[in-house]
Specification:
Layout (H helix, E strand, L loop, with lengths): L2 H18 L2 E7 L13 H15 L2 E7 L5 H14 L5 E7 L2 E2 L2 E3 L4 E3 H9 L5 E7 L6 H6 L3 H4 L5 E4 L17 H13 L7 E3 H15 L7 E4 L6 E4 L6
Parallel strand pairs: 1-2, 1-3, 3-7, 7-8
Antiparallel strand pairs: 4-5, 5-6, 8-10, 9-11
Helix pairs in contact: 2-7, 3-4, 7-8
Amino acid sequence: MHKSAIIALCLSLLCATAAMARAYIVCVGIADYPGTRNDLHLSANDALTMQQLYQKNGDATVTMFQNEQATVAAVREAFGNCCRQATEADAVIFYFSGHGVPGAFVCHDDFLSYDDVVRALGTSAARHKIILADACFAGKARRSRRHATAETFAETSVLFFLSSRTNETSIENVTLRNSLFTAYLERGLRGGADTNRDRTITARELFTFVSEGVSAKSGNRQHPVMWGRFDNDMPLMVWPAKNN
């Protein structure tokens, strides 16, 4: 077989493998917190948007929690199950939209620490492990990691894509259907970030698309951040080839 044909065959096999990999996702969106003082407008719909996006992709297992469903115990159990079910070829994704405090997501009844989420990821065989957080002060996850135990992060390669820097809030624009970060996240994953039109959205492509869009739309008041141990060409969404 000619060398170029061998290369083409290898690439096609890699694409087929990527397309067959399954995504296990927990989507959490909390707009209605106890009382009325801390309520948000769009976060519950953010989780629905992400659920629909991954279900449209066709090869995903999505568990969603909205508002009062999103207790720490329920979310922790569901995400632990996802981590255990995923095989090496799969992806495990934790998506959260709601209030955030330094070092934790604010669930309906209590705080869910970043460390708890990463510990669960550390038990998973999945090759791709991703945390998507649309919450105020989401950038504080970086500080959490520096102060975590070695056990928490040992051998755990995780991509963190966070809606804002350490000292920034995440903006809800009520003229949009989703929070600003999630709006651009969805557009990017649907194909807006696919600059080379290969139907694979990579980490590099998604970060560029979302960060530029959010920064411009917010008037430079919100700046998404992406960090962790991952390849810039790591696929975050692979869309099946169109039928001819």
